[in-house]
Amino acid sequence: MKNSIASLLLLAFLPVASFAQKNKTPKPVVIAYVGGYRGLADTSYIDVTKLTHINYAFVDVKDNRAWLHFEKTDTVNFKNLNLLKRKNPSLKILISIGGWAWSKNFSDASLTDTGRRAFAASAVNIIRQYALDGVDIDWEYPGMRGNDGNVYRPEDKENYTLLFRDLRHALDSVGKETRKKYLLTTATGGFSNYLSHTDMKAASVYLDYVNLMTYDYSWGMSGHHTNLYNSDSIANQNSADKAIIAYIQAGVPVQKMVMGVAFYGRGYVTPTADRHGFNQKPVSNVRGGGYSYIKDSVLTQPGNTAYWDDKAKAPYIFNETTKTFITYDDERSVKYKCQYVKEHKMAGVMFWEYSNDPKGYLLNAITEAFK
Fold first, then answer.
1. Could you report the per-residue pLDDT of 135-157, keeping only the tens digit for each?
2. Catalytic positions
């Protein structure tokens, strides 16, 4: 895998090698998703000195428009997030539209030229009104089912790209008025099948960053949910490395790619204790929790043993008595992810979601790795 991605990257960078030698590699971006979908977000503990971007999650889609589902608290959250720029004037704040629960209307909004233009105008109106810096689209997923009740159709593949074209045009138009560069990004599936339902090469032309959601890999089976590489324990699994290789092969510039880090764990009860719970159909799901909780509470509980998968570069916890299996990112796995980003000249990392690690264990690890 390492050799194959190295070859791909070498080919990708050969035409610009002389130019790259004259220019320093940009500092990696650190993009935090901050949730406002529950109501008021506590911004008091956000260490913005360690962030480059905040993606506010989420803005809904209604009647082919970007829509503030909880306008009363959304507006307060925007105000409080903007106040963080006093500590970090270069911080960029974007609205993230969609998410797992609010992606059901993307297909309809993107179906026609009229719908796409109306959607783009509504998104731009929000960022203008609240003095924000750009738009992130988290459509889960074009051409695929996603959450129950989502509308999806084959036309999503083309319309997904056209949506970004119209958003880019709207953002650039208002940028000429305000003399400001507005960002356009997207959160994408960290699995190769996502590329069968989108034209990411064409879409990436309009995008500043492609945020790969390289987590939630363990649906339906116990195993790593945010592993960097494939494990020896599970066949035909997803991994961040596998997704990045697929995106490069699909024509997405690696310098626009952002690797996802999970600030939360996923937990399962397995039927047996074989292989420390690996690769089994769970009996039930249990709370994984955010990383601060995992580090301070779960790892200190009797019977819970931490393991490290050196092939996957990923940790997990297993309790032989309760047969509880928890998969997550820790400081060590984050360090490997950041090294990967630097070695392959990716744009940086993003993580879901800030409130899952209020003590900042993983953000500190990211900051240290990118020094």
1. 999 999 999 999 999 999 999 99
2. 140
